Amino acid sequence: MKFCDRILIGDAKYSSHHLKLIEPNSSEEDASAHASSATQQESDFDSENESARQKINFKLLIESRKRLNKSANEAAPNNILLDAHRFNLDEQHSRSQVIDPSTGRLYVGGVNNLYDLHASSLSVKAHAVTGPEEDSLECLNRESCNRKTPHNSYTKGLAVYEKGSKLIECSSLFQGRCRWRNLYNIDQKDVIRESQRNVVANDRFSSTVIFVGAGPPNDDGIPKINHNHMISISILNSMWITVTLVIAEDVLYVASTYAHNGSYWDDVPAVASLSLAQETLFDVSVQGVGTGTEIKMERQFRGQYKIEYVGGFQSGRFAYFATRQPKGYIPGGNTFPIISKLVRVCTSDAHFWSYTEVPLECSQTNVTYNLLTDVYLSKPGYDLASSLGISVEDDILYAVFVEGTGVDKSVPSMHSALFTGKFQNLPWFKSAERCQQTKFSGQEVLCGKDVNSYIGGDIAIESKPVLSTRKARFTAVATNTTRANTVAFIGTHDGRLLKAVVENRTAGFIYRSLDVGGGKPILQDLELDGTGDHVYVLTPSSVSYVTVQL
């Protein structure tokens, strides 16, 4: 078997065109320089990983290794895209993409536009205009004031709600709101419903993460009798019992950076779960007196302590968010370095008492990769699973980091690393502070009690990188498996898609480099299609459909 480096893409005007290895408006001299640079970059990766590559011998890499072992005098067009198609977004600011797993259709959100694209051709199936709209930071809602001017709509996040056949789209307009749309007709006006309050960041750059996951059973966390989910069972024809089936309803998990943009942001939670029920759509899923499924930052820290949300997902009975944030904060004191953290909350916790956050530390000799840039939840291949002592059916977290520089370690360098970690029996969600002794069992406390709640852990999740480089800034990651092998696809800040083999929990290597972005950064939200044979690559101005059949 071999990897196919053909890329299939569609044009913004709903037709396709062929591209050479560079942007259409570049000169032949630019093309020559670009190809030379790409070949040199691949040579750098080859040099860094040659010893690791020599240890590998399996069918997956036979064809690739033939090409990589060519002499320096031979042509090596591994980075050159001789045949490609591209879907270009006119507004030059694509923000997010998501796949409907049931149909394979791709949804892409940009500035003032939302697209529903066919899976393979990337031709446009439907298009919705989301802005500009008359808006103002002084207006709480659409009708509350007259001082409005046209504002762009920046897509803050997309999620598919399969059970309701809805696409959830959140944008910066109207203080930062979410709305749902018909998954099969995104511009159907009579289906669109908007949140009645602001729930996401209301500016262009502040981070927002959304995803659909399981929520608590009901308002009290105690199952209520639901006659729609009741069955009666006859036992020996002499007595009847009624069994209530408790089905956890899906919710929308949302995390947003405090934007301090306008005067209506004080009540927006940092982390929350929102209802997806028709009658309470986008309300906090459980609201109580002083509690509920939301976490708010203390008011005095909101303008000074910045938390950037990198990604989110559900694994088992927990919902997770990955963040970048200062290690600490003292008003008027010293600057703290930026670190990365993993936030966890039990999905059945109706009060978010189980909210816990711990540092993520990825380091090797003399280098600490402190800036998390993307996370991806997937399964391991057999070899990786064996090295971790888990099953190929267990969840694995893949994360890419960059070493930060500067006083607060916030400036990304060209030193990057890939990390993997398992989720089974996580003993590292602990606090260095002494917890209050109680009579509750560990399982009772695990998913929420009003003691030992809201733990800010100091004991880090520590790991060595699977692979690292000093030649690229990693920006995105996705993975796939084929038989025993785990293959990672890594995006870079200069538009390259790197293919890497993850051998085990501490060893891997990069063996191919494709120029997909034409020098523009590859964004988060790398998505594999339903077959796993293709990856969708998002840049600020285009979407690419890359064939990576294993």
UniProtKB/TrEMBL annotation:
- GO MF assignments: semaphorin receptor activity
Q: Where is the Sema domain?
A: 67-548
GO biological process terms held by the UniProt record: regulation of cell migration
GO cellular component terms, alphabetically, are: plasma membrane; semaphorin receptor complex
Residue span of region Disordered: 26-50
Q: What is this protein called?
A: Sema domain-containing protein
Per the UniProt entry, what species is this protein from, by scientific name?
A: Anisakis simplex (Herring worm)
